[in-house]
Amino acid sequence: MADTSDFRNGLIIKFKGEPYVIVEFQHVKPGKGGAFVRTTLKNLRTGRVLDNTFRSGESVDVVRVERRKYQFLYKEASGLVLMDNETYEQITIPQELLEEKVLYLKEGEEIELLVDDDEKIISAEIPIFVTLKVVETEPGFKGDTANTALKPAKVETGATINVPLFINEGDVLKVDTRTGEYVERVKN
Fold first, then answer.
1. Domain Translation elongation factor P/YeiP central, which positions (predicted)?
2. Residues 4, 9, 95, 109: is their CA dihedral positive or negative?
3. The domain spanning residue 86 has which CATH number?
4. CATH number for position 13
5. Count of Cβ atoms closer than 10 Å to residue 148 Cβ
6. What pLDDT does 172 receive?
7. pLDDT per residue over 29-85, tens digit each?
8. Backbone angles phi, psi at 53, to 5 degrees
9. What's residue 33's pLDDT?
10. Strands ordered across the beta sheet of 181-186
C-alpha cells in the first residue's frame, strides 16, 4: 500500500478497479483546510483521461507491472500474433488493445506489452514513429507548391494518411502513430 506522497509521473495505480497511470500531479496546500493532491490520470485499458483530487496521505494501490518486448508476426481473425523476443513463445492478443494504431503496424515491428503480477496484459504500445512505404497515391505536379496542400496516400499496411504533394509511390515515410500524421520522407 502506498499513499499520495509516493506519487510520481508514470506511476501505475488501481483506481476504481481499473489500472491508471499518473500523467501529472500537483501537491496543493491551501491557506485553509487540509492539503490535497490534484492529478491527471489515464486509464491504461480505455485510454480515457480524467482529473481527480486525492486528500494528502490517502492510501492507493500501486500496480506492479513488467514491460515485455514482443515482435508482431501477423494478423488473424482472433487477434494479433506476437512472439516473445527472449523465449520465442507465441501469443495472441486482441486487436482492441492497440485501437486504431493497428493500422500502422507491419510485420516484424516491435510491440511493448505491460503485464501485471497476475500475467494479465494491461496495455500494448507500438513505437511512436514507424517507417512505411507508399503503395498508392496521385502523382504530384511540378510547381504545385504554392500552398501546403496535402493529398491522400495509401501505405503498405493499408492505412491512408495525408502527405505533401511531392510524395510519390515507392517513397518511404516516417509516420507518427499517435496522430497518424506524416512526419518526413526517409532516404532509402
1. 67-121
2. negative
3. 2.40.50.140
4. 2.30.30.30
5. 7
6. 92
7. 888 888 899 999 998 877 789 999 999 888 899 988 888 899 999 988 888 899 988
8. -115, 130
9. 85
10. 160-164, 150-155, 129-137, 172-176, 181-186
Residues 103 and 75 in one domain: yes
46 and 73 part of one domain? no
DSSP string, 82-113: EEETTT--EEEE-GGGTGGGGGG--TT-EEEE
Answer yes or no: do 31 and 58 share one domain. yes
Place of cell 512472439: 83
Question: Domains in the chain: how many in total?
Answer: 3
pLDDT band with cut points at 50, 70 and 90 for residue 188: low
Q: How confident is the model at residue 143, as a pLDDT?
A: 59
Q: Cα separations (Å) of 148 from 114, 155, 166?
A: 39, 21, 11
Which residue, 105, 125, 145, sits at the end of a domain?
125
User: What residues pair up with 42 in beta bridges, in sequence order?
Assistant: 21, 49
Nearest to 133 by CA among 98, 100, 167: 167
Enclosing domain of residue 26: 2-62
Cβ 80 vs Cβ 102: under 8 Å:
yes
Question: Which residues are 26's β-sheet partners?
Answer: 38
Instruction: Give pLDDT, residue 144.
Output: 56
The residue to which cell 518526413 is assigned: 184
